[in-house]
Design a protein that fits this description.
The chain has 12 helices and 14 strands. By secondary structure, the protein is of the alpha/beta class. A 9-stranded mixed β-sheet has the order 10-9-8-7-11-6-12-14-13. It is elongated.
Amino acid sequence: MNQRELDRRYMERALELARLGQGWVEPNPMVGCVIAHGPEVVGEGWHQRFGGAHAEVEALREAGQRARGATLYVTLEPCCHQGKTPPCTEAILAAGVQRVVAAMKDPFPQVAGQGLRRLAEAGLEVHCGLLEAEARRLNAPYLKLIQTGRPWVIAKWAMTLDGKLATRTGQSRWISGPESRALVHQLRGRVDAVLVGSRTAALDDPLLTARPPGPRTAVRIVVDGRARLTSESQLVRTARQAPVLVAAGPEAAAVDLRRLESAGCEVFVAPGQTPQERLLALLDELGRRRMTNLLVEGGGRLLGALLDLRAIDEVHVFIAPKLFGGLDAPTPLAGLGIDRTEQAVQLDSVQIERVGQDIYVTGRVRYPAEGEGPEISAG
């Protein structure tokens, strides 16, 4: 196996290791590292938890003295600043590593190419860009948060084969099977927040927690302009056990805001004249709180509004072999929608699998070029 093949093999392994940190390290990026002497791997590591040792330090610790003269493969540029942990560049230099191969630069302002520059100026052989597309895909939520200040938005819904979220009377339990619902709980357990609209909260009375718990405890958010979420709802009754945020509007009555706050909920009064402006203000607020992944579980009006705003990044759809029918039965995406088929939002990296009796479809969202989609007035 030549050097190019070895480099690719070890970077693929580093990417596998990086994914092990999903749900544990956010808002930090997932990072994996492999240290090798030719065909021999002498150290591996990944960033295991927020505030913990970085991937390079973990791999160097395992390699020990064998790191001297070795090649270090890492999925993201090593940091060169003092944060919650010391600079990884200094640990690499102290270990005597001879060559560093990074998948991509880190856009974090305090790094942004300076880590690789520090290593090169110290005399190390430095390469960047190997499997960069794969590394960017892995850390797309982190990259979006850094570049836009907003979280990665994951839209999830379960629907019948004829595309219904519920019956015409609003009943939706249970469309998908237990295996699908178990996957949803896994999703909830690795995101920073779970978002629903007020109608979904009222009709379904969801708990929105991960069962069993995952690595993260998601903030449960309800978009409720008038702050009418009832005190008897599961969300309000459990607000002191798991956080609840009610995103209200300026029209909400002060008495309802006080009622929710006294029950343990946090209230965020979103600024803006229109529902679209307030929804964007909520995303900005979640970004300020360094939330990296937001799971949106409905209903159709909220999901449609987010799609109109081009705010959805990823979809997870469970399709059950059932038929509801009904012109008035709700569908997954309301909102404004599009006028022409060429304006359709596309899915990339589509994966389709069987989960119990259901079909599970996932993909990344790709929007048409600006100007081809619906006109949105969002301020």
